[in-house]
Structures are given as structure tokens and as C-alpha cells.
Amino acid sequence: MGQGPILQAPETFFIAPLSRPAPGSVGKTGSWRTSKPVVYEDKCTGCMLCWLYCPENTILKTSNGKVAIDYDYCKGCGICAAVCPFKAIDMVSEV
Ligand code: SF4
Ligand code: SF4
């Protein structure tokens, strides 16, 4: 479950303008979460489907070809876990 160094999405994904989350008027949106996605690297194939579907753009490619979550802004919606075809993401309660 460890996360390698976080990189930006690879250049092959720069086919459209990308926005990155930033603090809003009430701070970082990660504080809204009640559960967080946890990536199991042994199951992750690096297919980036979760990145494609994440509405907050809080999934980043790591140097080892897997993905990491930006918990400062992830809102815990669970879409990434639902779409992962390899069941490599679990939602874990934080409350
Ligand atoms: S969808 Fe699943 S297998 Fe694909 S990159 Fe995301 S966590 Fe890894
Ligand atoms: S839980 Fe939602 S906001 Fe957080 S990384 Fe997954 S898809 Fe993105």
C-alpha cells in the first residue's frame, strides 16, 4: 500500500486541458471526506481508469507505474473504487 514519489500524469494523457484542485473558501476539500480510497499496489495495473473517472483530479501516477491519491483534495466519493476493474481500491471509513 506504500506510495512511490508522486508525478504528474504522463504526457500521453495531456490531450486536453487539466485542472488541479486548490483550496476553496473553506480550505482543502479533503476535510469533507468520511471515507478514503486506499490503493493496493499489488493489484493495480496502472491502467489509469480511476484517473479518467475521478471528478476531482486527485489521482496521480507514481514513478512505479501505479497510482496515488491526493488526500488533501479527495472528497471520498468512491467512484475510483467502483470503476477499478481489478478491485485495487478499497474505500476505508475515516469516522
Ligand atoms: S483503475 Fe485500478 S488498476 Fe487501474 S490504475 Fe486505477 S487502481 Fe490501478
Ligand atoms: S474517492 Fe472520488 S475524489 Fe477521491 S480519488 Fe476516488 S474518485 Fe477521486
Describe the structure.
The protein is of the alpha+beta class and 95 residues long. It has a domain at 30-93: 2-Layer Sandwich (Alpha-Beta Plaits), CATH 3.30.70.20. Helix content is 11%, strand content 17%. It has helices at residues 49-53, 79-83, and strands at residues 35-39, 59-61, 67-69, 89-93. A two-stranded antiparallel sheet has the order 1-4. Strands 2-3 form a two-stranded antiparallel sheet. A hairpin with a 5-residue loop joins strand 2 and strand 3 (67-69). The radius of gyration is 13 Å and the shape is globular. The two termini are 20 Å apart. The model has no long low-confidence stretch (mean pLDDT 86). Bound molecules: iron/sulfur cluster (SF4) (2 copies). Residues 39, 44-50, 67, 84, 86, 88-89 line the site of one iron/sulfur cluster (SF4).
